[in-house]
Design a protein that fits this description.
The protein has 20 helices and 8 strands. Helix 1 links the parallel strand 1 and strand 2. Helices cover 48% and strands 10% of the residues. Helix 2 runs antiparallel to helix 11 and helix 4 packs across helix 8. By secondary structure, it is an alpha/beta fold.
């Protein structure tokens, strides 16, 4: 059984902080091979990835990773709990073991232990505290963070940081697996920082460690600061950005979403995963005045319905993922490992993994599903149904480009070998 370091990531886009995490993981594990499980065309929060999954995978390989595998859409575009659990399930099915490296945020030296305590807390212990905060009007995220804080000793604000939220879910999902945690402190700008920040040492020169959100915001400006971007990302990411003629615009989802809601039967909408408490009616009502997707989301956001959840729900409706289907996927876990990129050393590792893995390693999509079958449903196996959502997501992202990108890229693009 191969010992390796795994990282579950989005790389949206791949930046210096990601390269640092891979380098640090190798230092701490004696240069163990690094396997990345990466989101595909859409992220955990339901936004389109700014670069294609192949470009992002290539950047990871060129900066120290050995293998990049796509985390299937039905686990990648989910809440933190399902995102983490789906990733650990996939790793377990590959027949490997080792460390799961992930980032944590904050200066508290006791943070790793606090996160462990939070992850070990039972729902019976959390529930009464959670309900108490919800009754006081807190959002679910704030209420859960406060409950975990009271149990773990960490601050509530610390447990609301995105990296730490995921860290707790990784620690939960790791229990009983062949992987143990490797927590790596995030350096530079915070995960949620939305603008380029200067280096603490210089005061005016941009730091080399920016958040992905800040980089995306800069890229989408009419006149982005090229110096700051070059300082924030490795060469592979910069080259991919230079070759990009446009970036996906999620506001373009509004029209197909309106068309979908106007033409689908109400019973089918109500069968979509995540639809509850009349959410479909709220969508229909707010769509009357929406000028773009951003205004629709802003009008619908509440403590119960945060924007990330609404974004994911729009994708589920557009792709037609039902509640029953998603529950079946959760019960089975990932049914394949879709290869996106590989180093020379990674090829040797893949050969060994292929003998131990309980799921197929896919390098050619057409060997497992034909392009003409993607829009079928009843004729497909469970693996094919899971795989088709990766394909549809890639095509949907391509449609958000200006001009629209090429359809069928999953059948036309081969893994990158470095």
């Amino acid at each position: 059984m191969i010992d390796c370091t795994a990282i579950i990531a989005e790389y949206n886009p791949f930046h210096n902080g990601h390269a640092y995490q891979i380098k640090k993981a190798k230092e701490l594990t004696g240069n163990a091979p690094v396997i990345i499980l990466m989101s595909g065309s859409f992220t955990e929060r339901g936004s389109s990835a700014i670069l294609s999954k192949w470009s992002r995978a290539k950047a990871a390989i060129m900066n120290g990773a050995d293998i990049v595998i796509e985390l299937p859409f039905c686990f990648a575009v989910r809440s933190a709990e399902h995102f983490a659990r789906g990733g650990i399930q996939l790793l377990s099915k590959l027949g490997i073991r080792g460390k799961l490296a992930f980032g944590i945020e904050g200066d508290d030296p006791d943070l790793p232990h606090s996160l462990q305590r939070a992850a070990s807390a039972s729902e019976d212990a959390i529930s009464p505290i959670l309900r108490s905060h919800l009754k006081r009007g807190a959002s679910y995220g704030a209420a859960r963070a406060a409950a975990l804080a009271s149990i773990s000793g960490a601050s509530s604000s610390s447990l609301r940081m995105p990296n730490n939220i995921l860290a707790v879910e990784y620690l939960r999902a790791l229990r009983g697996s062949r992987f143990s945690p490797l927590m790596i402190k995030r350096i530079g700008a915070g995960y949620s920082s939305e603008s380029i920040t200067p280096s603490p040492e210089s005061g005016d020169i941009p730091s080399g460690f920016q958040s992905a959100a800040a980089i995306r915001a800069e890229l989408l400006k009419p006149h982005p600061d090229k110096h700051s971007l070059r300082a924030s990302m490795p060469v592979a990411s910069i080259e991919s950005l230079r070759k990009s003629t446009s970036f996906p615009d999620d506001d373009l989802l509004l029209r197909p979403f309106i068309a979908r809601l106007l033409t689908i039967q109400m019973s089918k909408i109500q069968s979509i995963y995540g639809i509850r408490e009349g959410l479909e009616n709220r969508f229909l009502k707010q769509l009357r005045d929406a000028k773009d997707l951003t205004s629709l989301l802003d009008s619908m956001e509440t403590r119960r319905y945060p924007i990330s959840m609404l974004r994911r729900e729009i994708l589920y409706i557009l792709l037609g993922i039902t509640r029953d289907e998603m529950h079946t996927f959760d019960d089975e876990g990932p049914l394949y490992a879709r290869l996106l990129a590989c180093s020379k050393n990674g090829r040797v590792i893949l050969h060994t993994i292929s003998k131990a893995s309980s799921i197929p390693l896919i390098s050619k999509t057409g060997s497992y599903i034909k392009s003409r079958s993607v829009h079928m449903q009843h004729e497909l196996s469970l693996l094919q149904r899971m795989l088709k959502y990766d394909i549809l997501a890639t095509d949907l992202r391509a449609a958000l480009m200006s001009p629209p990108g090429r359809q069928g890229e999953d059948f036309l693009t081969s893994p990158y070998f470095y």
